[in-house]
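Section 3.1: Structural characterization of target chains.
Under the original work plan, the team committed to producing a structural model for every single-chain target entering the pipeline before any wet-lab resources were allocated. The record below documents one such target. The sequence was received from the expression subgroup and is listed exactly as submitted; it comprises 316 residues.
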Amino acid sequence: MSKQRIGVLVMSYGTPESLDQVEAYYTHIRRGHPPTAEQLHELTSRYEAIVGGFFPLRENTNKQVQSLEATLHREHPEVEFVCYQGLKHAQPYIEDGVDQMVKDGIQEAVGVVLAPHYSVMSVGGYVKRAQDKADELGLKISFVLEYHLHEKLLDALQTRVVNALAKFDGNRDEVRVMFTAHSLPAKILEMKDPYPDQLLATSTAIADRIGLTNWQFGWQSAGQTATPWLGPDILDVMQTVANEEHVRKILLCPIGFVSDHLEVLYDIDIEAQALAKELGIQLERTESLNTDPLYMETLSDVVYKKWQETKVANPS
């Protein structure tokens, strides 16, 4: 008897693959409006600053998709899970991933986003695009919406915080641990969006496991728009704790990001580090999850569980 084939649509934000793709990528983010020369120069300069323009996110995402498929095969050999990539702002787009599944004869699928925390403006947007395309093509698909308190995810993050704290000399309690995530427009608060609460829940869970008392949460990488975004920004927080509380050791733990990309390699490793130097602060950060086996097992668990739930709810 042949195995049942289940498609897995692995969704993420996307990134250009080379410098000459930055303008098209930025235009897509801006909903078809090309960036100004100044805006394009600023974004391109950021990519160039990361190892001479090497684009790590794309390669990291490719490896995550491959590793997830291998983990699903290992943990659930009775089912043939086939992973497809769907990106929000670069090819293959979310719709391309759905289309490819249908072309390959996939009839049933699970969608998961490489982001543990749900917001209607982030994960919700991915899900809507995938569902709309699936409905158009007659594909049966269900979605993992969040996994921010999965035990294996917390295990992986806890290990990273403990390892990073070891980079500081002296009393660990002197280190201000700052959990961070990508800011979103502040209007999500009016919508009772769960994003801030889920991020705080993850932060609290990690702090409780380790016994941290000197920690807080901060936002980063806000968009440059006329509308306000969630704050305070970590750069502002760093200045405040340095100048008013005389903190000289800070550990950034970007729990809202699952791989090394622009918001980690530039916003933290270059921009925040430059500020830390000005302020006389020792700044360290936790390693990104990337293809950590515990993270891959987290994704494997939630995908399999969602598929099982769908089977129970809709027995064939």
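The beta strands are 4-12, 79-87, 108-113, 140-143, 176-182, 215-220, 249-253, 282-285.
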